[in-house]
């Protein structure tokens, strides 16, 4: 596995993405708008395909105001993209269930994504990132990165690493 980190990740962009996923999915649930959960799904899917946080456009729109402030850290972007992609797959299943008349299953899957995004945003632990690193330890092809030295898999690296 590759332990050398020579890439930078803007954690503020990741946090903006997580906040938008949480807010829009909660609004979708409250107003019973499966289409809005579908929008979140599409944005997450496109972001994963483009290899950037799906809602990075919101972050970029706010950045010139000086808020939010970038927090760029040496880290691997691949685990974050894996986490977003896995979340998109769960959202695809959730919105599919919503449109198939399986509201309990659909909203349950949407809330799972909300809960995991909230754990990352407020708790600093990325479950998808941890899974990425654990799959790498099992030598699964495509999972080639290791967490930054001294960082527990899924946790945010310390500044200056």
Note down, in words, how this protein is organized.
The chain has 161 residues and is mostly helical. It has one domain. The chain contains six helices and two strands. It has helices at 11-30, 34-50, 56-62, 77-99, 103-123, 127-137; strands at 8-10, 72-74. The radius of gyration is 16 Å and the shape is globular. The chain starts with 7 loop residues before the first strand and ends in a 24-residue tail after the last helix.
Strand order of the largest sheet: 1-2
pLDDT below 50 for ≥5 consecutive residues: which ranges?
none
Strand content bin:
under 5%
Q: What is the helix tally?
A: 6
Overall domain count: 1
Class of secondary structure makeup: mainly alpha
Describe the structure concisely for a colleague.
The chain is mainly alpha-helical and 161 residues long. The protein contains six helices and two strands. The longest helix is centred in the middle third of the chain and has 23 residues, at 77-99.
């Amino acid at each position: 596995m590759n332990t050398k980190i020579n890439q930078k990740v803007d954690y503020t962009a990741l946090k903006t993405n997580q906040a938008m996923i949480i807010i829009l999915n909660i609004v979708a649930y409250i107003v019973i708008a499966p289409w809005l959960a579908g929008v979140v799904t599409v944005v997450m899917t496109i972001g994963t395909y483009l290899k950037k946080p799906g809602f990075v456009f919101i972050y970029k729109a706010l950045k010139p105001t000086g808020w939010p402030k970038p927090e760029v850290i040496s880290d691997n972007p691949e685990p974050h993209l894996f986490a977003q992609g896995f979340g998109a797959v769960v959202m695809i299943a959730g919105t599919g269930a919503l449109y198939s008349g399986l509201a309990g299953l659909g909203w349950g899957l949407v809330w799972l994504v909300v809960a995991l995004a909230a754990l990352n945003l407020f708790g600093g632990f990325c479950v998808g990132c941890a899974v990425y690193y654990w799959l790498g330890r099992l030598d699964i092809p495509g999972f080639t990165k290791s967490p930054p030295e001294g960082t527990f898999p899924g946790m945010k690296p310390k500044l200056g690493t």
